[in-house]
Design a protein that fits this description.
about 0% helix, SH3 type barrels, mainly beta, globular, two-stranded antiparallel sheet
Length: about 90
């Protein structure tokens, strides 16, 4: 189990993010978290990795890593602050 500080005095198990569905602020599903990109030097989450993305949002449904600072909320799902209308990789 790896605990990472997200904000002052907020910690959670990073592994709990894996398998969560990720949605845009408009309620469109981006995909499901397959892995977490960690920055061990700063003890922070760098991003969330999605292998199979929504091809309406990401050209060809290509895998992407979303910077963690794009995350607005984490609960049963992850909601992003913003996401481009169509991302070309």
């Amino acid at each position: 189990m790896v605990d990472v500080v997200i904000e002052a005095e907020k910690e959670f198990d990073v592994a709990s993010l894996i398998g969560k569905d990720v949605y845009t602020i408009k309620g469109i599903k981006v995909g499901r978290v397959n892995d977490i990109v960690l920055d061990f030097d700063k003890n922070q989450i760098h991003g969330i990795f999605i292998m199979n993305t929504n091809d309406r949002l990401v050209k060809n449904g290509d895998p992407i890593s979303i910077p963690f600072n794009y995350v607005k909320a984490i609960g049963d799902i992850i909601i992003l602050k913003s996401f481009p209308d169509l991302m070309h990789i």
